[in-house]
Design goal:
With 463 residues, the chain is of the alpha/beta class. The protein has helices spanning 15-28, 40-49, 66-76, 91-100, 112-145, 153-166, 182-192, 210-218, 235-238, 254-266, 292-297, 303-309, 326-341, 350-358, 364-378, 386-394, 407-430, 434-441, 445-454, and strands at 7-11, 33-37, 54-58, 81-86, 104-107, 172-175, 200-204, 219-220, 232-233, 243-247, 268-269, 278-279, 283-288, 312-315, 347-348, 383-384. It folds into three domains: 7-136, Response regulator (Rossmann fold, 3-Layer(aba) Sandwich); 146-317, P-loop containing nucleotide triphosphate hydrolases (Rossmann fold, 3-Layer(aba) Sandwich), CATH 3.40.50.300; 323-462, Orthogonal Bundle (Helicase, Ruva Protein, domain 3), CATH 1.10.8. The strands form five sheets. It has a five-stranded parallel beta sheet with strand order 2-1-3-4-5, sandwiched between helices. Strand 4 (81-86), helix 4 (91-100) and strand 5 form a beta-alpha-beta unit. Helix 6 (153-166) crosses helix 7.
């Protein structure tokens, strides 16, 4: 519920009776929120302010009786458990109340033990409903974030951050290196938000010339400029009720930064050539791979716009911060590419995965995805092997003898791949303990450290 405390609201048109029931409940639950009111209308006002876990209501009341109150609370606050009580109750009334959504029924005069027994059962039911709702929300968040492939600690924390920021309607600034998946993160935030039924519109700010970007964002009226032979709705209007992603906002021209700031402050836009403003209801998601604070110091980004955008911030981890996700990503991209090509699925060998996991990816997930696409094309059979990886790196396909390297080069490449794969598995097995790894491998600690330096593997990554 909305409050951590157990909460019970007693509703009865007899003030003394309502207060007496509330006092009895307070004696049983001294640290919880117990309140009394004297009409159905007043009960609904209480519920609007802060919903209660349990409502115990009289059946016979003037203006709005208990049956109507049960129906309205049941429809608007399904997590609230309702208990009816009346001195005039009949079997028919009890059945009707239960059909309307009441959980239980008490008769006046109320015996304290009967009241406590029913209250305890009603509170337990509300707790279970609240836990079920929490689990449903958690599962929904997880299913939406499943499109972000990975299970490393860094990516799990990132998924949790996306689920958290999605619950509000504040502006979100998404930071991250090029190729990390900032637009995908924005789409996850939109799908998890209350705006998910409305459109999400994305615009790559530097991809559109400055003299066209204003019209693209805010729209224009007919005749606003040469070639404007008809009015055009801008992206803000197209995203009405939903979300607008301003991708690579760090490259937004200064003139448009001023107009965007005014738009965010006033929640309205002015189309190019228009004489009046248009109100908007759009959530802004902004992304950039730029250091906005550095750009502010250089006078290339407005400070007031930065603070207007930087309400909630999430940072997409780079691939080097989540190398343990690379095997999952390789499998995912291979399956996806093979489906796109209409070919049989392909499986990477352990040696190929080990090499790909140790290889640097400065272009992050986008570079890895493009590389895996090449692997799917170059692999003739159903396995992606190290030679296939080498072909993809060199941009050479086929298995003809004219494309083979020298024996010495080929042997060195295989030995290098084996060494990298073996030492990586060694560090994974020992949790980065170099002494234990040296003992298992039969190498001296100094020799192993030299090998680790040569293949650029740091034990710290495995601890």
């Amino acid at each position: 519920m909305a409050n951590d405390k157990t909460s019970i609201l007693v509703v009865d048109d007899e003030p003394d009776f309502a207060s007496g029931i509330a006092r009895l409940l307070e004696s049983r639950y001294p640290n919880e929120r117990i309140m009394a009111c004297h009409s159905g209308a007043e009960a609904l006002e209480f519920m609007e302010d802060l919903p209660f876990d349990v409502v115990i209501s009289d059946l016979k009341m003037p203006e709005m009786d208990g049956i109507e109150l049960v129906g309205r609370i049941h429809d608007q606050w399904p997590g609230t458990t309702l208990v009816m009580l009346s001195a005039h109750g009949t079997i028919e009334q009890a059945v009707r109340a239960l059909k309307m959504g009441a959980y239980d029924f008490l008769t006046k005069p109320v015996e304290p033990q009967a009241l406590f027994r029913v209250a305890e059962k009603a509170l337990e039911r509300s707790r279970l409903l609240g836990e079920n709702e929490r689990l449903r929300s958690l599962l929904a968040c997880r299913s939406e974030t499943d499109c972000i492939v990975g299970d490393s600690p860094a990516i799990r924390r990132f998924k949790d951050s996306l689920a958290a920021v999605a619950q509000s309607d504040y502006t979100v600034l998404i930071l991250g290196e090029s190729g990390t998946g900032k637009e995908l993160a924005a789409r996850v935030v939109h799908r998890l938000s209350s705006r998910t039924e409305n459109p999400m519109v994305a615009v790559n700010c530097p991809a559109i010339p400055e003299h066209l970007l204003e019209s693209e964002l805010f729209g224009h009226v007919k005749g606003a400029f040469t070639g404007a032979d008809r009015a055009r709705k801008g992206l803000f209007v197209n995203a009405e009720g939903g979300s607008l992603l301003l991708d690579e906002i760090g490259d937004l021209p200064m003139g448009l930064q001023t107009k965007l700031l005014r738009c965010l402050q006033e929640q309205e836009i002015r189309p190019v050539g228009a004489s009046r403003n248009v109100p908007i209801n759009v959530r802004i998601l902004a992304s950039t791979n730029r250091d906005l604070e550095e750009r502010m110091r250089q006078g290339e980004f407005r400070e007031d716009l930065y603070y207007r955008l930087n309400v909630l911030t999430v940072t997409v981890p780079s691939l080097r911060e989540r190398t343990e996700d690379i095997p999952l990503l390789v499998h995912h991209f291979l399956d996806m590419t093979c489906a796109e090509l209409g070919t049989t699925p392909k499986e990477p060998t352990p040696e190929a995965l080990g090499y790909l996991s140790a290889r640097p990816w400065p272009g992050n997930v986008r570079e890895l995805q493009n590389f895996v696409r090449r692997l799917a094309v170059f692999a003739a059979g159903d396995r992606v092997t190290l030679p296939v990886v080498r072909m993809a790196e060199n941009g050479v396909s086929g298995d003809g003898p004219g494309e083979l390297s020298s024996y010495k080069e080929a042997k060195a490449a295989v030995v290098d791949d084996f060494t990298r794969s073996y030492t990586r598995r060694l560090l994974e097995a020992t949790g980065g303990n170099v002494s234990e790894a040296a003992r298992i491998s039969g190498l001296s600690r100094v020799a192993l450290q030299k090998i680790l330096k040569r293949v650029d593997l740091s034990p710290d990554r495995f601890r």
